[in-house]
Amino acid sequence: MDYLTTYARGAAPSLLVISRYLAAAGSSGQTSEQLQRALQPRPMIKEVAPRASLLGPALRIGEHLGLFEQDKAGGEQSWRLRTTAAGKSRTSNAREDDRAFYARVFGALNARALADVEANDLSDLALGIIWFCQRDPLVPLNTAWDGETETVVKSAGIRSNAIFNAAQWLAFRRWAVHLGVATLTERNSKNSYISADCTRAIEPILSSMPVRARADTWISHLLATLPVLGHPRLLRVLPVPPTEPDVISGSLAFALLKLERRGKVQLVPAADASNTMVLRVANTITRIGEIRVLEASTA
Protein backbone atom coordinates (compact mmCIF):
# COMPACT_ATOMS: atom_id res chain seq x y z
CA MET A 1 0.00 0.00 0.00
CA ASP A 2 1.51 3.29 -1.10
CA TYR A 3 0.30 5.74 1.52
CA LEU A 4 2.96 8.29 0.61
CA THR A 5 2.67 8.11 -3.19
CA THR A 6 -0.51 6.76 -4.79
CA TYR A 7 -2.67 7.73 -1.81
CA ALA A 8 -0.65 10.71 -0.57
CA ARG A 9 -3.76 12.91 -0.60
CA GLY A 10 -5.24 10.79 2.17
CA ALA A 11 -4.36 11.75 5.74
CA ALA A 12 -5.20 10.86 9.33
CA PRO A 13 -7.51 13.89 9.88
CA SER A 14 -9.46 12.89 6.76
CA LEU A 15 -10.02 9.42 8.26
CA LEU A 16 -11.29 11.04 11.45
CA VAL A 17 -13.83 13.25 9.66
CA ILE A 18 -15.07 10.39 7.47
CA SER A 19 -15.31 8.08 10.47
CA ARG A 20 -17.50 10.55 12.36
CA TYR A 21 -19.73 11.05 9.36
CA LEU A 22 -20.14 7.31 8.72
CA ALA A 23 -20.89 6.77 12.41
CA ALA A 24 -23.75 9.26 12.10
CA ALA A 25 -24.96 7.58 8.90
CA GLY A 26 -25.36 4.25 10.67
CA SER A 27 -25.66 0.86 9.05
CA SER A 28 -27.13 2.21 5.81
CA GLY A 29 -23.76 3.72 4.93
CA GLN A 30 -23.03 6.38 2.32
CA THR A 31 -21.90 6.28 -1.28
CA SER A 32 -18.73 8.07 -2.34
CA GLU A 33 -20.86 10.70 -4.06
CA GLN A 34 -22.94 11.27 -0.92
CA LEU A 35 -19.81 11.59 1.17
CA GLN A 36 -18.32 14.04 -1.31
CA ARG A 37 -21.43 16.22 -1.33
CA ALA A 38 -21.46 16.30 2.47
CA LEU A 39 -17.75 16.70 3.13
CA GLN A 40 -16.67 18.65 0.04
CA PRO A 41 -19.64 20.89 -0.92
CA ARG A 42 -19.56 22.20 -4.49
CA PRO A 43 -19.93 25.90 -3.55
CA MET A 44 -16.78 25.67 -1.41
CA ILE A 45 -14.38 23.77 -3.67
CA LYS A 46 -13.77 23.03 -7.31
CA GLU A 47 -15.75 19.99 -8.34
CA VAL A 48 -13.57 16.91 -8.83
CA ALA A 49 -14.16 13.18 -9.02
CA PRO A 50 -13.95 11.38 -5.62
CA ARG A 51 -10.84 9.53 -6.79
CA ALA A 52 -9.02 12.82 -7.52
CA SER A 53 -10.02 14.49 -4.25
CA LEU A 54 -8.91 13.88 -0.67
CA LEU A 55 -11.91 11.61 -0.20
CA GLY A 56 -11.00 8.72 -2.50
CA PRO A 57 -7.49 8.15 -1.12
CA ALA A 58 -8.74 8.45 2.47
CA LEU A 59 -11.46 5.86 1.85
CA ARG A 60 -8.95 3.42 0.37
CA ILE A 61 -6.55 3.93 3.27
CA GLY A 62 -9.41 3.41 5.74
CA GLU A 63 -10.37 0.24 3.92
CA HIS A 64 -6.78 -1.02 3.98
CA LEU A 65 -6.57 -0.40 7.73
CA GLY A 66 -9.88 -2.15 8.39
CA LEU A 67 -11.69 1.00 9.54
CA PHE A 68 -14.16 1.23 6.62
CA GLU A 69 -15.77 -1.36 4.39
CA GLN A 70 -17.61 -1.29 1.09
CA ASP A 71 -21.00 -2.80 0.43
CA LYS A 72 -21.32 -3.54 -3.28
CA ALA A 73 -24.80 -5.09 -3.08
CA GLY A 74 -27.53 -3.66 -5.24
CA GLY A 75 -25.19 -2.28 -7.87
CA GLU A 76 -24.29 0.88 -5.92
CA GLN A 77 -21.23 0.90 -3.69
CA SER A 78 -21.66 2.33 -0.24
CA TRP A 79 -19.24 2.81 2.61
CA ARG A 80 -19.78 2.12 6.31
CA LEU A 81 -17.72 1.67 9.43
CA ARG A 82 -16.49 -1.81 10.12
CA THR A 83 -17.92 -3.37 13.26
CA THR A 84 -14.56 -3.19 15.03
CA ALA A 85 -14.41 0.56 14.47
CA ALA A 86 -18.05 1.36 15.21
CA GLY A 87 -19.01 2.85 18.54
CA LYS A 88 -15.68 4.59 19.07
CA SER A 89 -16.10 7.46 16.64
CA ARG A 90 -17.59 9.92 19.10
CA THR A 91 -17.05 10.79 22.74
CA SER A 92 -18.18 13.68 24.91
CA ASN A 93 -14.68 15.14 24.80
CA ALA A 94 -13.60 15.98 21.25
CA ARG A 95 -9.93 16.28 22.15
CA GLU A 96 -9.85 12.88 23.85
CA ASP A 97 -11.79 11.48 20.91
CA ASP A 98 -9.17 12.65 18.41
CA ARG A 99 -6.35 11.05 20.40
CA ALA A 100 -8.25 7.79 20.81
CA PHE A 101 -9.04 7.67 17.09
CA TYR A 102 -5.46 8.26 16.01
CA ALA A 103 -4.33 5.61 18.49
CA ARG A 104 -6.75 3.19 16.84
CA VAL A 105 -5.40 4.09 13.39
CA PHE A 106 -1.86 3.47 14.61
CA GLY A 107 -2.99 0.18 16.12
CA ALA A 108 -4.50 -0.85 12.78
CA LEU A 109 -1.26 -0.01 10.96
CA ASN A 110 0.66 -2.12 13.48
CA ALA A 111 -1.81 -4.99 13.24
CA ARG A 112 -0.98 -5.36 9.54
CA ALA A 113 2.77 -4.84 9.75
CA LEU A 114 4.08 -8.32 10.64
CA ALA A 115 1.75 -10.12 8.21
CA ASP A 116 2.53 -7.60 5.47
CA VAL A 117 6.28 -8.01 5.83
CA GLU A 118 5.96 -11.78 5.51
CA ALA A 119 3.93 -11.24 2.34
CA ASN A 120 6.53 -8.77 1.07
CA ASP A 121 3.84 -6.09 1.08
CA LEU A 122 4.90 -3.72 3.85
CA SER A 123 3.50 -0.23 3.28
CA ASP A 124 5.81 2.70 2.65
CA LEU A 125 4.37 4.44 5.71
CA ALA A 126 5.13 1.50 8.00
CA LEU A 127 8.67 1.24 6.63
CA GLY A 128 9.19 4.95 7.15
CA ILE A 129 8.00 4.77 10.76
CA ILE A 130 10.19 1.74 11.51
CA TRP A 131 13.21 3.66 10.25
CA PHE A 132 12.25 6.94 11.91
CA CYS A 133 11.67 5.38 15.35
CA GLN A 134 15.23 4.04 15.36
CA ARG A 135 16.66 7.53 14.97
CA ASP A 136 18.31 9.35 17.84
CA PRO A 137 15.49 11.50 19.30
CA LEU A 138 18.03 14.15 20.27
CA VAL A 139 19.00 14.68 16.62
CA PRO A 140 15.94 16.18 14.90
CA LEU A 141 15.50 16.60 11.16
CA ASN A 142 14.48 19.76 9.39
CA THR A 143 10.84 19.59 8.32
CA ALA A 144 11.90 21.09 4.99
CA TRP A 145 13.21 18.72 2.34
CA ASP A 146 16.58 20.41 2.45
CA GLY A 147 19.96 18.96 1.59
CA GLU A 148 20.59 17.60 5.09
CA THR A 149 17.23 15.86 5.45
CA GLU A 150 17.45 14.37 1.96
CA THR A 151 20.96 13.12 2.69
CA VAL A 152 19.83 11.42 5.93
CA VAL A 153 16.94 9.68 4.17
CA LYS A 154 19.18 8.63 1.30
CA SER A 155 21.84 7.22 3.64
CA ALA A 156 19.16 5.21 5.45
CA GLY A 157 18.43 3.40 2.19
CA ILE A 158 14.68 4.04 2.22
CA ARG A 159 14.58 6.73 -0.46
CA SER A 160 13.73 4.28 -3.23
CA ASN A 161 10.80 2.57 -1.48
CA ALA A 162 9.37 4.97 1.09
CA ILE A 163 10.39 8.64 1.07
CA PHE A 164 12.01 9.97 -2.07
CA ASN A 165 10.97 13.61 -2.52
CA ALA A 166 9.51 16.64 -0.76
CA ALA A 167 5.88 15.55 -1.29
CA GLN A 168 6.47 12.14 0.30
CA TRP A 169 8.42 13.73 3.16
CA LEU A 170 5.54 16.11 3.84
CA ALA A 171 3.01 13.27 3.81
CA PHE A 172 5.21 11.13 6.05
CA ARG A 173 5.80 13.74 8.72
CA ARG A 174 2.09 14.59 8.89
CA TRP A 175 1.29 10.92 9.47
CA ALA A 176 4.12 10.57 12.01
CA VAL A 177 2.88 13.47 14.12
CA HIS A 178 -0.77 12.41 14.06
CA LEU A 179 0.08 8.79 14.90
CA GLY A 180 2.10 9.86 17.92
CA VAL A 181 5.62 8.85 16.85
CA ALA A 182 7.02 12.34 16.26
CA THR A 183 7.07 15.82 17.76
CA LEU A 184 7.55 19.15 16.04
CA THR A 185 9.73 21.97 17.34
CA GLU A 186 9.95 25.49 15.94
CA ARG A 187 13.31 27.17 16.49
CA ASN A 188 12.38 30.37 14.69
CA SER A 189 9.85 31.66 12.18
CA LYS A 190 11.65 29.98 9.28
CA ASN A 191 12.89 26.66 10.67
CA SER A 192 11.02 23.81 12.32
CA TYR A 193 12.26 20.34 13.16
CA ILE A 194 10.79 16.89 13.64
CA SER A 195 12.07 14.45 16.28
CA ALA A 196 11.42 10.75 16.85
CA ASP A 197 9.29 10.42 19.98
CA CYS A 198 6.74 7.59 20.33
CA THR A 199 5.58 8.56 23.85
CA ARG A 200 2.08 9.48 22.65
CA ALA A 201 1.80 6.17 20.78
CA ILE A 202 2.65 4.13 23.89
CA GLU A 203 0.51 5.97 26.43
CA PRO A 204 -2.89 4.72 25.16
CA ILE A 205 -1.88 1.05 25.49
CA LEU A 206 -0.40 1.21 29.01
CA SER A 207 -3.69 -0.08 30.40
CA SER A 208 -3.26 -3.30 28.38
CA MET A 209 0.38 -3.81 29.34
CA PRO A 210 1.52 -6.05 32.23
CA VAL A 211 1.32 -4.07 35.46
CA ARG A 212 4.62 -5.58 36.57
CA ALA A 213 6.98 -7.77 34.54
CA ARG A 214 10.58 -8.44 33.72
CA ALA A 215 11.85 -5.77 31.39
CA ASP A 216 12.42 -8.16 28.47
CA THR A 217 8.92 -9.64 28.88
CA TRP A 218 7.30 -6.22 29.11
CA ILE A 219 9.09 -4.87 26.04
CA SER A 220 8.33 -8.03 24.05
CA HIS A 221 4.64 -7.53 24.89
CA LEU A 222 4.86 -3.90 23.79
CA LEU A 223 6.53 -4.75 20.47
CA ALA A 224 4.00 -7.51 19.79
CA THR A 225 1.31 -4.83 20.08
CA LEU A 226 3.17 -2.01 18.31
CA PRO A 227 5.78 -3.80 16.19
CA VAL A 228 6.72 -0.77 14.07
CA LEU A 229 8.42 0.68 17.16
CA GLY A 230 11.19 -1.89 16.84
CA HIS A 231 10.07 -5.51 16.54
CA PRO A 232 13.16 -7.59 15.57
CA ARG A 233 11.41 -9.02 12.51
CA LEU A 234 10.63 -5.55 11.18
CA LEU A 235 14.06 -4.15 11.95
CA ARG A 236 15.48 -6.74 9.57
CA VAL A 237 13.68 -5.12 6.63
CA LEU A 238 15.59 -1.87 7.08
CA PRO A 239 18.26 -1.41 4.42
CA VAL A 240 20.57 -0.23 7.23
CA PRO A 241 19.55 -2.22 10.35
CA PRO A 242 20.56 -1.16 13.90
CA THR A 243 24.14 -2.00 14.84
CA GLU A 244 23.11 -3.10 18.36
CA PRO A 245 19.95 -5.23 17.94
CA ASP A 246 19.91 -6.26 21.61
CA VAL A 247 19.89 -2.66 22.83
CA ILE A 248 16.64 -0.68 23.06
CA SER A 249 17.53 2.67 21.57
CA GLY A 250 16.03 5.50 19.56
CA SER A 251 12.48 6.65 20.12
CA LEU A 252 11.41 3.67 22.24
CA ALA A 253 14.17 4.12 24.84
CA PHE A 254 13.51 7.86 24.92
CA ALA A 255 9.75 7.30 25.40
CA LEU A 256 10.22 4.85 28.29
CA LEU A 257 12.50 7.27 30.11
CA LYS A 258 10.05 10.09 29.42
CA LEU A 259 7.11 8.04 30.74
CA GLU A 260 9.08 7.32 33.91
CA ARG A 261 9.69 11.05 34.44
CA ARG A 262 5.95 11.61 34.05
CA GLY A 263 5.17 8.99 36.69
CA LYS A 264 3.46 6.65 34.21
CA VAL A 265 5.91 3.76 34.56
CA GLN A 266 8.78 2.74 36.80
CA LEU A 267 11.99 1.38 35.31
CA VAL A 268 13.46 -0.78 38.04
CA PRO A 269 17.27 -1.08 37.90
CA ALA A 270 18.58 -4.58 37.21
CA ALA A 271 19.67 -6.54 40.28
CA ASP A 272 22.18 -8.53 38.24
CA ALA A 273 23.44 -8.87 34.69
CA SER A 274 21.41 -11.97 33.85
CA ASN A 275 18.03 -10.24 33.40
CA THR A 276 19.05 -6.86 32.06
CA MET A 277 17.62 -4.74 29.27
CA VAL A 278 19.80 -1.91 28.07
CA LEU A 279 18.25 1.41 27.07
CA ARG A 280 20.43 3.80 25.13
CA VAL A 281 19.68 7.43 24.31
CA ALA A 282 22.68 9.12 22.70
CA ASN A 283 25.59 8.25 25.01
CA THR A 284 23.45 7.58 28.09
CA ILE A 285 22.92 3.92 29.04
CA THR A 286 20.26 2.71 31.51
CA ARG A 287 20.13 -0.93 32.62
CA ILE A 288 16.75 -2.14 33.83
CA GLY A 289 15.45 -5.47 35.12
CA GLU A 290 11.74 -4.77 35.55
CA ILE A 291 9.06 -2.39 34.30
CA ARG A 292 5.98 -1.44 36.33
CA VAL A 293 2.94 0.49 35.10
CA LEU A 294 2.03 3.14 37.67
CA GLU A 295 -0.61 5.13 35.82
CA ALA A 296 -2.44 4.05 32.67
CA SER A 297 -4.04 6.45 30.24
CA THR A 298 -7.84 6.60 30.21
CA ALA A 299 -7.98 7.98 26.66
Based on DSSP secondary structure assignment, what is the total number of beta strands?
A: 10
Task: Give the number of helices.
Answer: 11
The Rg value, from CA coordinates, equals: 20 Å
The CATH architecture category of the largest domain equals Orthogonal Bundle
Could you give a short account of the major beta sheet?
5 strands, mixed
Task: Show unreliable segments.
Answer: 86-94
How does the overall form come out from the CA principal axes?
globular
Q: What features would you describe in this structure?
A:
The protein has 299 residues and is α+β, with helices and mostly antiparallel strands. It has three domains: 12-81, Arc Repressor Mutant, subunit A (Orthogonal Bundle), CATH 1.10.10; 94-199, Arc Repressor Mutant, subunit A (Orthogonal Bundle); 209-232 and 241-293, no CATH class. Helix content is 40%, strand content 15%. The strands form three sheets. Strands 6, 7, 8, 9 and 10 form a five-stranded mixed sheet that branches. A three-stranded antiparallel sheet has the order 3-5-4, with helices on one face. A two-stranded antiparallel ribbon has the order 1-2. The two termini are 29 Å apart. The model is unreliable at 86-94 (pLDDT under 50).
Topology summary:
Layout: H1 12-25, H2 32-39, H3 55-64, E1 68-71, E2 78-81, H4 94-118, H5 124-133, E3 141-142, H6 147-156, H7 166-178, E4 182-186, E5 192-196, H8 199-202, E6 212-214, H9 215-225, H10 232-235, E7 247-249, H11 250-261, E8 265-269, E9 277-281, E10 284-293
Parallel strand pairs: 7-9
Antiparallel strand pairs: 1-2, 3-5, 4-5, 6-10, 8-10, 9-10
